[in-house]
Fold:
Amino acid sequence: MLDKNGIAKRIAKEVKDGYYVNLGIGIPTLVANYVREDIEVEFQSENGVLGMGPFPFEGREDADVINAGKQTITTLPGASFFDSAMSFSMIRGQHVDLTILGAMEVSENGDIANWKIPGRMVKGMGGAMDLVASAENIIVAMMHTNKKGESKLLKQCSLPLTGVGCVKKIVTNLAVIEVTELGFVLQERAPGVSVSDIVNATDGNIIVNGSIPEMEL
Amino acid sequence: MINKKVDNVIDALRGVTGGMTMIFGGFGLSGIPENAIAKLVDLEVSELTCISNNAGVDDFGLGLLLQKKQIKKMISSYVGENDEFERQMLSGELDVELIPQGTLAERCRAAQSGFPAIYTPAGYGTEVAEGKETREFDGKMYVLEHAFKADFGFVKAWKGDAAGNLIFKGTARNFNPNMCGAAKITVAEVEELVPVGSLDPNQIHIPGIFIQRIFQGDFYEKRIEQLTVRQKN
Structure:
């Protein structure tokens, strides 16, 4: 079974040379730590920066240079700043190659819910609805089950949706799963996790074709 | 040169009354019009409808107006950092419209640019699209979203001049440029008001035509919400 860093490490393998990548808050942010050093990738943050670098050294932080999680960051050579409308032009206009975001629930048909629990938690969608409505290449990074142990991979989402039919791939602490027209299709197992562990932790129908390889990390 | 300079925040906020709709720049606490917000608290205007990406934190930014219960309705995309906001919303004291962040930016830009509305794919199939006109273009569904109509817009820039020209810094730019000219009166506050002619016209982010009043803020706290650093090894 993977921890959050393990999920990020596996997703980092999906980041290819020349990609512009938008990372959501939470596990997705960790992906930047594991991208191969021999490829060129630029990270976009919805609040208006392309070419994000690592956190600043202590004492070098700048209140005017933050990421979408409101964390202080640095920029790399070649970086640019821009306004919010232009930032979402990059996103809705499909100029960003890969979007990685977290989720509370994903359904068999690729619906995603991650912004609201009615009556209990309402943080808002931020840029997530713009991202999922437009991006061609969306990977969801999340734990397979919630804190109560209930599956987050469902036949139908129970929470208010963020987007419909948009998720193509899910990487959890247990598995890599593709979302196809037929539903969830199991692609890879996390180290030490069996196919039946994954099937049992998945509420939606999950297709298992032949033997399922263990993830390479 | 058409002079937009006013002497202080009091003159900048002339005409502000309760019940108005106001647009505020900023992402989190970065690039927020700190001086205008502080003055609105002083003026004790209430029943405000506020359009801003976030709602500040409990004791800073728009959170200061929330604490005094001056806000009737909030239109935002993300409000996760503010406990008082969440409390007022869940208890029904505060009317809240949550909208996608890109839609928020474009509804400002539409108001700025003379478009009555725009079509966006964001929110289609979700509760955000409920009751709204939708339309198919090339096999994909879009939601009609209307331009904002606001009385005042408050933006914050790094540098500006009396002509109203603005230059922003870093990610403090965010929504600010999109909100200039999106309300009947746009008030720009700047960290540094420089002499007219000293800004390079090639480097201006927002031309003064979009700004009605400009002033230099007395003080900027520029609070950092999430200080994250790495250690030198």
Residues 25 and 176 of chain B are 5 Å apart (CA to CA).
